[in-house]
Design brief:
single chain; alpha/beta; 2 domains; six-stranded mixed sheet; about 10% strand; elongated
């Protein structure tokens, strides 16, 4: 205890994470080395995280949840890690992503850009770089956003993947992002996505006009217990709706959107036509 360093949880989110690790560890009378053995890390690594000299990783946070029995609770180490790592993201979004990674069905409607779950690394990078050029993000924040896209996609590549239903506004496939090769590869990725056994892809054409029920992006999640959640964004923050009475109208409107949009085969044919203009 001679070298014990006092922690100030309020000094930074990383310090708060480290202090929580220490408190949880000491409640079990474990040494840093002992906790490290449970988690698969060295005692030196645990010490560095506790004192905020080293940033925790997603693997570290999930290991802490496993060891301390906080997996699946409302206040996991993983959620705290996401708040640290993705503090530059829109308020409310990290909370949504925690549910997204456990959903059994995901319904997406997007306008203007390809949604993160379907983005290629090059497309995601082109978007992030545009934020930096406009002064809307620092280079570090841009790198974090690109890494976050990859982490979200990895979280869904599990043994029993969710059913993912995506309806893209036509603007998503016609708005050029990055060099022509970047956009062509992104459109090719959409075609590959449509071929997967657990996916459905449709494009809502401009000609739908007022028959399109949404003007902004929307997501509806179905969890393992069949409960429903919806997520929508304003310019300032994201809103996660958990009340069934608020989510059901969104789900109904989504079904209406799917019924009005062209079939997957027609949508893929549209994407192929757009690709011809990127070559």
């Amino acid at each position: 205890m001679v070298n014990r360093k006092d922690l100030n949880p309020e000094s930074s989110p990383a310090a708060a994470f480290g202090a929580r690790i220490r408190t949880s560890r000491e409640a079990r009378s474990w040494s840093q080395q002992g906790l490290g053995e449970h988690m698969g890390y060295s005692g030196t690594h645990v010490s560095a995280v506790e004192t905020a000299r080293k940033m925790p990783t997603l693997r570290f946070a999930r290991s802490a949840d496993r060891v301390f029995g906080t997996s699946g609770t409302a206040d996991t180490f993983e959620r705290q890690w996401r708040e640290i790592r993705h503090g530059a993201l829109l308020e409310g979004f990290p909370e949504y992503v925690a549910y997204e990674g456990r959903a059994v069905e995901i319904r997406l409607y997007e306008v203007g850009v390809i949604p993160g779950l379907l983005q290629t690394p090059e497309y995601a990078s082109a978007l992030a770089e545009s934020h930096v050029r406009r002064g809307a993000a620092t280079p570090e924040e841009a790198s974090e956003r690109v890494a976050f896209v990859a982490e979200r996609q990895e979280a869904l590549a599990r043994a029993s993947p969710p059913l993912i239903i995506v309806v893209l506004d036509e603007s998503c496939i016609r708005r050029p992002i990055g060099e022509p090769g970047v956009m062509d590869a992104q459109l090719a990725r959409l075609v590959e996505f449509a071929e997967q056994p657990n996916t459905v892809l449709q494009v809502a054409p401009f000609t739908m006009g007022a028959r399109r029920p949404f003007n902004l992006p929307i997501t509806v999640l179905t969890m393992a217990d069949r409960s429903l959640l919806s997520y929508a964004e304003s310019a300032q923050r994201g809103h996660l709706e958990r009340e069934t009475s608020g989510v059901l109208p969104m789900l109904t409107a989504y079904h209406q959107l799917q019924a009005e949009a062209p079939s997957q085969a027609e949508s893929v044919a549209m994407i192929h036509e757009v690709r011809k203009g990127t070559l």
